[in-house]
């Protein structure tokens, strides 16, 4: 690897938690090569934008941002992530200032490509999928907040019909248990209190005979990390072992993000989700029977091709029955290259909008009820930063169920674990009274 001089590098991340994690890793990789990460594009020799392709709107935003960043004429602009993977060299035409395009498995090639772009104005594109180096040896960035992500799998081969991810991130690859444990240990040593194991479907994790449940147990048993979370789980794959571990181990937080996407079996089949509403609801009942205080969050799409009013009512019924703590809701829009993009996008835009509005009303009503029932309860929270309220006299934190809580700052610091009584609820955030430090 040839590094001619120290460059200042500015990184920006769009999209999911995996991108945020990768952006940190890219920063650490470049720092390891002697470059310096800066907090503003103004003084940067190199600007890196890690992009998302999950919706067309996300790509339009990223292109807009790249055009905006192009005004930094002296800087080398690098595009990474899913949009880089999807568009490849076409990005040079769309944003002429771009010098390097690096897809989702190519980050290790960045130091050399950036040097070549800075020294010789060379352009390069890397979009080959399937390499293993990116998953095993992305360098970790140790300084950072008390709550950190650790990627344990990359890629997905579920091929949900609306989703572009399997085409852009390749087949599922799991990291080795050894490298995951080393990363968690390193993060704990540098001050992290909470780790979220990350992957498109973490339940698909496998290293030899070790599956996700065994990995979670090992992290809890063999590292000093105070709290463990995971994101995301496919409802077809998650089983009782995960909930049993959650029930037995207080440090394994009582929260699962379990995307349902739709409540009608006909639509679930058209989405190729691999479960029915009945099996999904059975998983919800299983979770609640084993972990009575579990919070369940979800993702839902409205207006998938051919979705009727009756299909949509089934989604509403399912939301009422499942009792989600929160739901991320979206209007369907086709992604070219996916199976669903070949179907007629036949639900009128106005109907999608109305359905989204109706769904959000039910989600909010259920959320208010679920959270309202917690007022007066006691919860352990991990304080993870200053709250933008009352001139920063409050710190913010999360309960194990991932519910937001504010507490008066007083003598407390980020990273403290405290026991609070949840006194009030406003805008889906609790105000807590600290009753003990842990
Ligand atoms: S599980 Fe489905 S929605 Fe999730 S990343 Fe894989 S293909 Fe996309």
Short summary:
With 438 residues, the protein is an alpha/beta fold. The chain has 3 domains: 8-126, Methylthiotransferase, N-terminal domain (Rossmann fold, 3-Layer(aba) Sandwich), CATH 3.40.50.12160; 134-372, tm_1862 like domain (pyruvate-formate lyase- activating enzyme); 378-437, Nucleic acid-binding proteins (OB fold (Dihydrolipoamide Acetyltransferase, E2P), Beta Barrel), CATH 2.40.50.
Task: Note the main attributes of this structure.
single chain; 438 residues; alpha/beta; Rossmann fold; pyruvate-formate lyase- activating enzyme; OB fold (Dihydrolipoamide Acetyltransferase, E2P); six-stranded parallel beta sheet; five-stranded mixed barrel; 21 strands; globular; binds iron/sulfur cluster
Helical stretch count? 14
Content of β-strand: 15-25%
> Looking at the structure, what is the overall shape?
globular
Please name the CATH architecture of the largest domain.
Alpha-Beta Horseshoe
Distance between the termini: 47 Å
Task: Please state the structural category.
Answer: alpha/beta
Helix content: 25-40%
Give the strand line-up of the largest sheet.
2-1-3-4-5-6
Extended strand count? 21
User: How would a crystallographer describe the biggest sheet?
Assistant: 6 strands, parallel
CATH class of the largest domain, named Alpha Beta
C-alpha Rg (nearest Å): 22 Å
Oligomeric state of the chains in view? single chain
